[in-house]
Every structure is written in C-alpha cells, then in structure tokens.
User: Fold this.
Amino acid sequence: MSTAAVDLFQVSKFYDDRVVVDALSFTVSPGECFGLLGPNGAGKSTLARLILGVASPDAGKICVLGEPVPARARLARRGIGVVPQFDNLDLQLTVRENLLVFGRYFAMSAAEVEAVTPSLLEFARLENKADARVAELSGGMKRRLTLARALINDPQLLVLDEPTTGLDPHGRHLIWERLRSLLGRGKTILLTTHFMEEAERLCDRLCVLEHGRKIAEGQPRALIEQQIGCQVIEIYGGNPHELLPLVRPQVQRAEVSGETLFCYVTDPEQVRLRLVNRTELRFLQRPPNLEDVFLRLTGREIKD
Amino acid sequence: MWQRFAPALPANPWNWMAVWRRNFLVWRKVALASVLGNLAEPMSSLFGLGFGLGMIIGGVEGTSYISFLAAGMVATSAMVSATFETIYAAYARMQTNCTWEAMLCTPLTLGDIVLGEVAWAASKALLAGTAITIVAVALGYAEWSSIPYALPAIALTGVTFASLAMVVSALAPSHDYFIFYQSLILTPMMYLSGTIFPMSQLPGSFQRIAALLPLSHSVDLIRPTMLGRPVDSVGLHVGALCIYAAVPFLVSAVLLRQRLMR
Assistant:
C-alpha cells in the first residue's frame, strides 16, 4: 500500500497512434503542491483525467489515495476535489443550489450540505452571492465557486486543471491566495498549468512536460538554479539572429525565440554596453524563471 | 473484462437519484412553460384530429374516434417527451454544458448518470402522458378508474424511449443528426403502431412488423386500460417494453463509456 497521495508508474496513454502520455512516473506526497507544467498539448489534462479514473491508461500503474485507478477510481474520487479547466457549473441554478446539487453527488444530505455552505461561501468570498444565479457571476466568481464546489466533500486531494486560465491578474491572485490557505490546512494539490509564475509561486515540486514526456522534475528554485543559474536579459526590437553574434562573447548562453533574444549572463551590464548604440532595442533584465528552464530544455517558449 | 465495463454501470441502486434531483431542480424553475410547451402539441392533435376526423370516421373499434385517438396520443406524447428530453436536453448536458463531466469527477459512475437521465426523461414522459390522460378522462373519453393502471404503462413507455434515445445520443456526432431519428424512426413508428388508426388497416406484412415495435406494445397496454377493457397479453407487452428498455440502456452505457471515458 502506497502512502503517496498520487503515484504514477510508467504510465502511457495513446489516442489512436499518437502518444499523449509517455511512460511517465511521479509521486505526489500528502500535503504537497505538485505542478504539471507544460504547453497546451503536453498531456496535462489527459493526466488529470487518468488520475481521476475518467480515462484508462494503456500501460503503467496509477494509485490515488491508496486506491488503484481506474479499478477503484470511484472510491478514490470520494476523497478528491476537482477544478476542471473549463467551468461546468449549473448556470441556471443559484450559487447555493450548485453546492447542494454537487453535495448530493457525494451522497451528502441537504442538511449536511447546508452545514458546510456558509464556510464554503466565505472561503470563495461569495457570501453576498449565495442566492444569485451563476449566470450572473463574473468569471473570477465562477472560478471561486468551482473551487468551493470542489471542497464540498472535504477532499484530501485537489486536482486543479489550469485553475487560473482566463482570469484577470486580480482574480488570479485571489485564487492563488485561496490555494495557499488550502495548503496551510494540509490539503494535497495537484496542479496543471502552462503558467510558469503560477507554478513557481505555488508548487513545492513540479514536473515539466513536453509531448507527454517528463523533461525535468524538482523544486522550482532548484530547477532554475540547476538549469540557468544566472541573470537573464531579454532583447527585442531588432533581428535576434543578427544580434546574437554581437553579444555571443559576453553571454554564457543565448536562445532565440520568436523576435526575442534571451541572453543568460552573470554580468548583464556587459551586454548592455555592447549594444549601447542600438537605440531601437528594448532590454528586459530579470532573474531567471521556469520559462527559461523550459526554453533551455526544449528550445522553445512555453507561452502559446 | 468486468473492470472495463464497471464504470458504465450504475454503482448502486440509489446514486442515480442525485442526477434526477439535479434535473428536477433546474426544471422546477421553468416548470409551467415546460408543461405548457410539452402539452400543446399532443392536445392540438387530439382535438384537431379527434373532432375533425372523428366527424368523418364516426366510431372505431367500438368507441368514438376521439376516445380511440386519446390513448394513441398518450403513448405518443410519452414517447416524444422521453425522446426529446434525452436527445436534446441530456445531450446538451453531456456535450455542450459539460454537466456530465462535472458528475464524472465525483463518486458517480457513468452508469449512474445515464440511469438518472433515463429516469428523469421517463418522469417527464409520465407527466406529459398523465396530463393528457386526465384531460381525456375529464372530457369523458376515458374511464376515471383507468388512471392508476395507465400510469405504470406510461412510465414504462417513457423508460423505453429514453433508453432508445440514449443510444442515439451516444452515437450522434452533433445534435444535427437527431432529425434523422425523428423523421426516419419516430414518425413512421407513430403511424405504424396504431396510435392514429387501427393497425388492422395496414397491409398484412406491415402488421407483423408493426406489432414488434415498442410503441405498439405501449398502445396495446394503454388503450384498453383507458377504455376500461381487459388488456390482452399484459406479460408479453410489459416484457417486450422491458427488453426495449434494458438492452438499449446497456448498449448506450457501453457506447458512452467509449465516447466519454477514452
């Protein structure tokens, strides 16, 4: 019996002849926030479906909350809360009714749902919207309601599939803050995102995916330190291929992605001095992040 | 083998009620409009054909034409209600609104969801069929005492056509395909099954095929009941409807598993 919240061993999934998940293994420990980071099409949502037992792997073993999945996925799902990539709330129903309906799927009585509703509404900052129809809520409110709904069964594990995609920065920060408080309460979170800032802020550990394969795994800071370990200057506004030979002697490494030249340097000033006369260029100097890790490992940006 | 199909079957005998109650809660908000909308068509057929054709035809099978037609309209409205709820509303919950996807992330199985939807569609069929029965009774076209006997037959008709429609929903790439089911299957079935005119008017070979159709079995249960006559071969009709309900239910659950749980 595994003590891990989620345990994947050599899991593969094919759609027709296409490999979507390729011999993937990872373990999520209880209480940790584990991220699956990768661009659209990397297999993140498929992995979430495999972990929930909604799809079956073609090879490998999955164990979630001590239950083999998909064989006993129904039992595992009793202890899981899910925030799907796209909201699937009942728009015609009120906020309160959405919680009631969802609680019944977990065999909760109306009284049991009513008992937890005030705390869930407070958590989602929707106390004043309890009797509003969901169709009237803003995108951020719907997202927070989806998160509150995922907590109705007091789950040990939360599976969040791109929880902040489509939200404005304010809405996003509010969700992040809510997720932090859930981690503080000891919940385990499995988070898929193509949003490196999200992964960097929230995740204790993460797995970087490309085409269903793991290309790196570890703590965000450690990954950045290992793979990059120096400052970054982004240069744009010119032809990056023409700029590359000019700065080459000053940089440890450089990558071109789109119209941007990414320079990895210990002394950024040297690069600036080199291009001081090129007034058409824009410089963005910043600490390295997961985006750089992904660019380094795959040769392309994660943004899409 | 069993493990592969377990998610397509109901997990227990009561999980489906959560799905039924969800649909009921949503329906309650639009109940009046929904009932009026569902009853307008069978009622206008009943009175339009019943009075109009009734005057020309006179009596049919020893009763007035409108009394004969009333039972046909009860069975037809149960068929249409259950079908439309499944191919349009349940399909939208599955395909467009992702309501089923949310349910699949809970301890409900796909089988629980399908059973809840079939039960819900059958409930709407029961409501529509019962309303027409009551109108027919109130106007003297059927016996008061027939109502308690007609209800189970209407409900079974609803379950049968909801299950059949669930197979169509499971196969349809988009809702544009439902028109084929309506125009190629349901409408001919209505004419063949003795709802509007007696099956004995059909050519012999057609009669033999028509007698096998699920709607014929419904009509054969509902009409004698409403007219206060003894029902022949109850076991045969009930058994046939049960098979028409159970087999498509299982087929649809397996097809939906392939469609939604890939």
